[in-house]
Amino acid sequence: MNIPFEFHTIAITGLVVGAAYIVFGISAFGAALFTVPALSFLYPLDFVLPVCVLLDVAASVAMGARFSRESDKQELMWMAPACLIGAVLGVTLLVSLPRAATLVALGAFLLAYGIYMLRQGPVTTHTSRRWAPVAGFAGGALGTLFGVGAPPYAIYLSRRLAGKDELRATLSNMV
User: Fold this and answer.
1) How far apart are CA 155 and CA 87, in angstroms?
2) Residue 112 to residue 51: CA distance in whole angstroms
3) Spatial distance between the Cα atoms of 173 and 59, rounded to a whole number of angstroms
């Protein structure tokens, strides 16, 4: 039997995906932040993105169905339309940008998000709902362009929702 990839490549892929979805199960987002950069070293980005999106959709649907009662429907209604507009822009950029530019942009996004997370102190402010369309648009665009759309949702929702169950349910439904 001829396997198209070497065994260590498949093993690394399994470990990366398994660890990423343990994080996803705990936080309701973050799997793509691990899978997309790590797997893009092993496979072409135009293969990694759709696979990671399918995995995220499946995990989000499973988690969203389980916790949908706790989600904040008002937040979802404010974010979802802008998310769709952002998704259209992200797809347009994905098909029109050269592959190297997409990889550089992905690296810049991950670096900026990492710096943001390291510099972030305790959340003390309550963000206005006016930021919902901005978070939705950014998440939609980043989700279709890089497969990592959850950080804008998480940043916004963590400053709007107090309960962990409500945050996790709303975030998984948005993803």
Assistant:
1) 18
2) 24
3) 10
pTM attached to this predicted model:
0.69
DSSP string, 9-59: HHHHHHHHHHHHHHHHHHHS--HHHHHHHHHTTTS-HHHHHHHHHHHHHHH
Residues in the chain: 175
Burial group, residue 118, by CB count within 10 angstroms (0-12, 13-18, 19+): exposed
Burial class, 93, CB count within 10 angstroms (exposed 0-12 / middle 13-18 / buried 19+): middle
List per-residue pLDDT tens for the chain, 175 residues long: 555 678 888 899 999 999 988 888 777 677 877 888 889 888 887 788 888 888 887 887 777 777 777 788 888 899 999 999 999 998 898 888 887 887 788 788 778 878 877 877 666 668 888 999 999 999 999 888 877 788 888 888 988 888 888 888 888 778 7
CA distance 71 to 161: 10
CA 90, 95, 97 angle in degrees (round to 5)? 85
In contact, 36 and 147? CB cutoff 8 Å? yes
